[in-house]
Amino acid sequence: MEYLVPDNLADAIALKAGGRTALAGGTDVFPAHVGRPLEPVVDISGLAELRGITETPEGYRIGALTRWADVVAASLPAGFDGLRAAAREVGSVQVQAAGTIGGNLCNASPAADGVPPLLTLDASVELASTSGTRVLPLESFITGYRRTALATDELLTAVLIPREVAGTRAAFVKLGLRRYLVISIVMVAATLAVSTDGRVARARVAVGACSPVATRLRDLEAALTGRPADEDLGVLPRLEHLDILAPIDDVRASADYRREAALTLVRRTLSSLTVQA
Predict the structure, then answer these.
(1) Rounded CA gap, 161 and 183, in Å?
(2) How many domains in the chain?
(3) CA angle 186, 192, 195 (to 5 degrees)
(4) 20, 166, 170, 180 - which has most CB atoms within 10 Å?
(5) Based on the domain organization, do 172 and 155 belong to the same domain?
(6) Both 27 and 128 in a single domain?
(7) Distance (Å, whole) CA 182 – CA 165
(8) How far apart are CA 104 and CA 28, in angstroms?
């Protein structure tokens, strides 16, 4: 097996351009290869330049190798509360200490805990190759069930969050068969920006584990905008607002259960945001 360990980003990008698999925390890659060998691997876990959260003039930059435990510990505005809550739900404490944000996105699981809150933060991803760097909205990056727009010669280097996250309220709720160490049945994340007159200036609501890709509920977002940010906000969502979802029947839940549970969680999530100071 070819296992390469570059000591800088330029070398990592050059090695990835050879069609090799990038390995970070390994919490998704290793379980997927039980009983069979790994493909040629570029282990990027030691690249400190891809780790950490920094504030920039445009917003916030989260290095692709930033671990979930780093998100939990970081001093961030309240608009990141949904992402922080999701970080606490990713596997066990051991997984949170090893798993990375970039790996979670590149794995592109429908039940990836990080995706719904990042969608509500209007996140983009930075992709680097030997020919340069491009930025894609997260919605365009994850293209289907375990599929992304990442080219074979590209490496995801950062997640970018616009500055408008400041001043927003955020929440994340996950439903599983037990409290911890569980794959989601439904996840809901939401952010609200509230104007000085107490009305919703901007709303983003995303649901995960109910479609091949976590999905924003744009019809609901439009219905929420301009409404008073009070306790009635939580009763506004209806099943029609979830028509864009495509839940499936599997060993964890039926499609009908997922749809009803998603509606309940959307309502609870919005209600929790209306009581924030």
Answers:
(1) 26
(2) 2
(3) 165
(4) 170
(5) no
(6) yes
(7) 29
(8) 8
pLDDT at 164 over 70: yes
CA distance 170 to 187: 14
Tokens representing residue 249 in the block: 């029947």
Q: List CB contacts of 36: < 8 A, sequence separation 6 or more.
A: none
Q: Indicate the residue among 146, 164, 182 that finishes a domain.
A: 164
- Distance between CA 75 and CA 78 in Å, rounded? 9
Asked whether 241 and 276 are in contact (CB, 8 A), the reply is no
Pairwise CA distance, residues 112 & 118, whole Å: 11
Instruction: Please identify which residue in the block is written with the tokens 């970039």.
Output: 102
Kindly state the percentage of the chain with pLDDT values over 90. 83
Q: How far is CA 258 from CA 7, 43, 254, in A?
A: 45, 37, 6
- Tell me the pLDDT of the chain averaged across its residues: 93
Give the residue from 113, 132, 164 where a domain finishes: 164
Identify whether residues 160 and 194 lie together within a single domain: no
Domain interval for residue 78: 3-164
Can you tell me the distance from the alpha carbon of 253 to that of 144, in angstroms, rounded to the nearest whole number? 21
177-226, pLDDT tens digit by residue? 776 667 899 999 999 999 999 999 999 999 999 999 999 999 999 999 99
* Residue 277 pLDDT exceeds 60: no
Shared domain for 116 and 8, answered yes or no, is yes
